[in-house]
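ok so for the tutorial part 2 we go from a plain amino acid sequence to predicted structure tokens. step 1 is just haveing the sequence, like this:
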Amino acid sequence: MLDSALECCQKCRGVIATIPSRIKCDNGLCSRVLHSQCTGLTKEQLKLLETIPNLSSKCDGCLGSNQNQSSLQLSKWLEQSLRQHEKRLEVLEQRSKLDDPGQQAPMLCPYLPNTISRKAISITVAFVLLTTLLGIILATTTNLFGKTLNKTDFDVIDNGTLVMLKVAEWGGKPPKTTLDPLDLPVHRVIISHTAAEGCESREICSNRTQVVQSFHVDSWGWDHIGYNFLVGGDGRVYEGRGWDRVGAHTKGYNKGSIGISFIGTFTAIRPAERQLKACQLLISEGVRLKMLAPDFRLYGHRQLSATESPGEELYKIIQKWPHWSHDI
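step 2 — the prediction. this is what the tokens look like for a chain of 328 residues:
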């Protein structure tokens, strides 16, 4: 189980261990992060990002670039942000001089009174800045809508159907070795949560699942992601070890159990209805396929292990589901 939120570099897919080595996309609609060394920026450019608060960083997706062009695009974006910052400083410096009673304000226009010409210049500067800002917003919005319209699948699944992504489809790696088989049908289902950030799109949920797999394999030395299945806030199911392989999710109870983990942390917030529905559809499918026994028992992870998982809010919900059991 994960005890804290983990972040994975969108480029190298490695776990980001320390905050100083992390650069986050400043687009408010995006939450992707990179290792500093994976940005392709020079030490001087990275120093500018640290020391100048008005400078911003963008990821490949928000810049609309591929991996081969990402370093060049990010450098251009940084240079553009730096020029805009310098222009803002020039405007503020000029305004400071005009507001200083000890300074003789320059005659901005010889044919108009100085106060009128000053207002005209201020209005012109404000208009130019506003036009530039609107242009940036329009370009960003158009890019976002274009990406949405070009998607071949829905961002979320709300139509009551079971949609499951295989390991390769969510960008995962195959197991290192052949995993032990489960004795079918299985008589226990154990519900947990990943205790990390949640997700509401296929892209972000896939990324969260990749982070979990990297942590299980690279940090704990397991052969594969520990859960049999994960359920995203987008209403999709992300296959881990599947129906017929022993998981690594609940010590002492892995054999004879299917481990299903909700992506997110549910100690204080309730999972989305589509996420709950996806889990119920998955369980029903297991019974239909005869992978789960018709009289299987449903448990929260905390009933079998010293943990808060699956979180208080999710635990209250699954206690009302069919097959939930007090008996261990």
